[in-house]
């Protein structure tokens, strides 16, 4: 039985712990707050982040990073993207040198423009053969309810990706391997920004033509950035690209979509933020995505419009007018 650790007992860390336990692993789930850890171990649920889902007995929560790391073949990392660097700095001394480090996150670090795999490499010094990513259309509540879904496990070393695939595979969760770590991470991070835009469209009462346009052109700008960063263009047509974009933009369960919809209905950014109890990564990562685009000389008009709304107080209706007023182009 593989022993694994999941660092971060939020909604996705907890849902992934369920998948891993279903796949036959013994799972140590690290949580920051001892009271939540106690609640998870005594009620077999995560009342704060995944209420209603019963956790398998193979999942044990702990607030001690060393206890979580003990004997772990893989450490899955899942806090909000801007918190990874600091949190990993505290976990890393407890984690063995041969443990594979896997990001479950979908964001880009502000200031550095680094993807989560790159932050992991920088903080721990781990090589690419020890760093993986899981990304795909995986809304936590549907995964925890064991609805059939697929995902991508990416690692530059495909032997490691195949091992991760084995560790995560269940009758309800089907991971595909990919060596394109950067493409998978970009697909996940940028779709959150596009989901904010689609949410705004929904909130403004706009229909399916508008949303399809945002999703398709959003994927086009994601692919342009990916090409400039050396990603494999095929990744964006797959689960970590189009798949996740569709799920997130279509689902009322998506926090990014919800945040955008609240803005579209007329809430201010502060009001929309106050209405959230969980992470909507696109709200912070939109600025780092746009920063990456500028560094690579890539045009990302939808991401730019989202940054305008979130950071500069542009009204969503004005952002739509600006997008529609851009110079005509070819597809
Ligand atoms: N929820 C979902 O459906 C999915 C989420 N993701 C990604 O997973 C990442 C985490 O998201 P969720 O689990 O959904 O967020 P969440 O808001 O449910 O949980 C965030 C977790 O991070 C912890 N945390 C925050 N700051 C911390 C710090 N400084 N030190 C230690 N822990 C800290 C919180 O206590 C909480 O456990 C995001 O990048 C998100 O995009 C990816 C796939 C699906
Ligand atoms: O990444 C996700 C689904 O794949 C979850 O999206 P949200 O973070 O918008 O809820």
UniProtKB/TrEMBL annotation:
Protein name in the entry: Glycerol-3-phosphate dehydrogenase [NAD(P)+]
Catalytic activity: sn-glycerol 3-phosphate + NAD(+) = dihydroxyacetone phosphate + NADH + H(+); sn-glycerol 3-phosphate + NADP(+) = dihydroxyacetone phosphate + NADPH + H(+)
Catalytic class of the enzyme: oxidoreductase
Top-level taxon of the source organism: Bacteria
Native organism: Streptomyces yaizuensis
Binding-site residues for sn-glycerol 3-phosphate, renumbered to this chain: 106, 136, 191, 244, 254-256
Segments forming domain Glycerol-3-phosphate dehydrogenase NAD-dependent N-terminal: 4-159
Keyword Oxidoreductase among UniProt keywords: yes
Family: Belongs to the NAD-dependent glycerol-3-phosphate dehydrogenase family.
Residues bound to NADPH: 11-12, 32-33, 49, 106, 140, 255, 281
Known role: Catalyzes the reduction of the glycolytic intermediate dihydroxyacetone phosphate (DHAP) to sn-glycerol 3-phosphate (G3P), the key precursor for phospholipid synthesis.
Signal peptide (from-to): none
Pfam families (alphabetical): NAD_Gly3P_dh_C (PF07479), NAD_Gly3P_dh_N (PF01210)
EC number in record: 1.1.1.94
Residue ranges of every copy of the Glycerol-3-phosphate dehydrogenase NAD-dependent C-terminal domain listed in the record: 180-320
Active site positions: 191 (proton acceptor)
InterPro entries: 6-PGluconate_DH-like_C_sf, 6PGD_dom2, G3P_DH_NAD-dep, G3P_DH_NAD-dep_C, G3P_DH_NAD-dep_N, NAD(P)-bd_dom_sf
Entries under SUPFAM superfamilies matching the protein: 6-phosphogluconate dehydrogenase C-terminal domain-like, NAD(P)-binding Rossmann-fold domains
Cellular compartments annotated: Cytoplasm
Pathway(s) of this molecule: Membrane lipid metabolism; glycerophospholipid metabolism
Alphabetized UniProt keyword annotations: Cytoplasm, Lipid biosynthesis, Lipid metabolism, NAD, NADP, Nucleotide-binding, Oxidoreductase, Phospholipid biosynthesis, Phospholipid metabolism
